[in-house]
Amino acid sequence: MTAGAFRPGQVSLGWQHELLHADPGQPPRRPVPPDPERVNPGWLAAQRREESLISRPARQAGAGGALLASAVGLLGWAGWLNPALTGLGVATFACLAVAGAVSAWRGRQALKAAIAAESRRVTAARAAQERDLFAAQEEHARRFRAWQSRERAFRGQALWYPVLLPEQTDRVDLVGGTVAGWSALLTSVGVPRLASGDALTVLDLSEGAVAGDLVSLAGQLRAGPLVWVLPGDLPRFDLGVGLPAAAMADILTACVSADRAAAGGHDPAPDHALLARLLEVLGDGARICQVTAALRALAQVGDPREDVRHGRLTAVQLERITGLFGRGAADRVVIERAWVLEARLRVLERLGSDPATVPPSRLRVVAVDPGGGAFGNGVLAAYVTVALTHLLRCARPGRPWRHTVCVAGAQALPGELIDRLAGACEATRTGLVVAYRSIPPHVAQRLGRGNAALAVMRLGNAEDAKAASEQIGSQHRFVLSQLTDTVGASVSDTAGDSYTSTVGTAQSASLSRSRSQSSGRSRGHSRTRPGGAPLAPRSGSDSTEASESRGTSDTDSLTDGINTSTSWGVTTSRAIGLNSSLGRTVQRSREFLVEPEELQRLPPSAVIVSYASGPRRHVVLADANPAIATLPTVTWRSLDQARLATQAPPPDAPAAEPAASPGEPASPGTPAASAGAPAAQPVGWRSGRGQPPPNLGPPPEPPDWRKRRH
Known about the structure:
By secondary structure, this protein is an alpha/beta fold. It is built from 18 helices and 18 strands.
């Protein structure tokens, strides 16, 4: 994949299979020359036999007349007949002989004329046959050239076209899907963005390591991925640290009140007032551990002198906090609210306590560890979302989709947080991809709002499948390609997934998730460099292990950089290897309508995309498998562009070569694909900003994580 494969701001959600040029079939048959016309020997023999039979009496009469004339002449010469009688007889019989001879000659002449006429007819017929044969051969040559043109167009045509969203699309709402499907779609969306020099931020709240393959490929795209695994990396995670007191009060209030506000009946104003007053005492740049210490002092939990000894509070701050509400500080309402806020914010106490210096990166992944617990992960997810939303709101608008934010597992977030994040992304022209595993009521109300595209993957739940079918429209009919169906039947979604923190030290935490292996056997291969940085094949140590365990990670690299940590990559390569015709002529597999039962059995990488473009709404079936980009039948032009191109040449002109050939860099995993690509930084990350691509204008300048803005 080259940096110029897509125009700036274009987003691809996978590959659409389409056969623009039909199979021309067998070549036209050459015209068979007919048997040449000639005089029929049987006819000639019959004519001669008939003429012989017809002229036989004349010949006999002539011969008899000549014989009798000779006899009469001899008798007269011998004196047996008188001269008068002799002369009369000779003359009579001579006339008879002459008449017979003339009749026989005329018969022979008529036969010769008939034979000559037949010869002339045969010659004319042979000439007509040759003219018809030459015309048929010229017509065959023309038809064969046209067939050759259609054959070249059919054999050389592209079969997979990117599903490009309109430029005015602000957001992608993804519902349904498995871990393997999300990994495929996230890789298909993220690799083009990284290859073109854009920035990508992934909030993985799914606890399934769905960005693992994207992280693996980002190293080959010179993106230098940075991964934070929470809560293990909280000390080195400084998102939102150092903000002014007012901004921190807004963030913490939204974080601790999100789920209760969504449940209804909760007013966040008292929480905001309490936190704002505490942060006024603590000052700008206060850390979360100082806020929790102040809340404990206000809630009369524990000994506040311990927090003073550990440096979380000063004696002056403690005195001001205890007297902040006067005698009302002992009121049960204030104590209960302080108790609740401290219990929720306690999860974030280690945030930014030991910040690490990280290099600039265009790919940043923040993931929650499934070992963090449901309550803790909920607070972490809310905080990361709210803090990122605040930083986006403080940034200046840039080029659309120059920075893309992907949120996986957003169904766990309250609807208000999703709305705020979507609004901030729309205001700053930041691309947003929100993935929901299910469709609860608060998600169903927000699908497709504004300039959003809807993407639907496999939905196992019947109610979710019914809701998605009604959202898309069940009247649409699609044809599933053989490759998508074959790979989908082979994907078991059983590969182990894991993240390794890239910002930690030797004590860095790791996130892992395992699911039962269908084969019962797994392999693990890992490469680490000193300091805990993964994916470094040139230095460090290599270790390989094999076991009969469940859910171990398999990270052996495939051809063209596709990784086997999820099943779709290896399965696609095996399908192409076992059936070479799949790379050139992918056949249709089956037809289906967008009905609930069909959505429940979609292949893992299949995605139905619905978006508005022009006067109508388009609904297409795509395959999000990023390994399709390695096929020789892939083009980077959209289907509409390809259709316009096919109408330009004349019917017998040679077909245009496909946009991507095996000799061209078409793989998203090719390291040279992004060589020289300008770097760009996501909004609000502390490690700096890259240079903008040429002719794209200045990049947005969001606030730094540690930059204070009043």
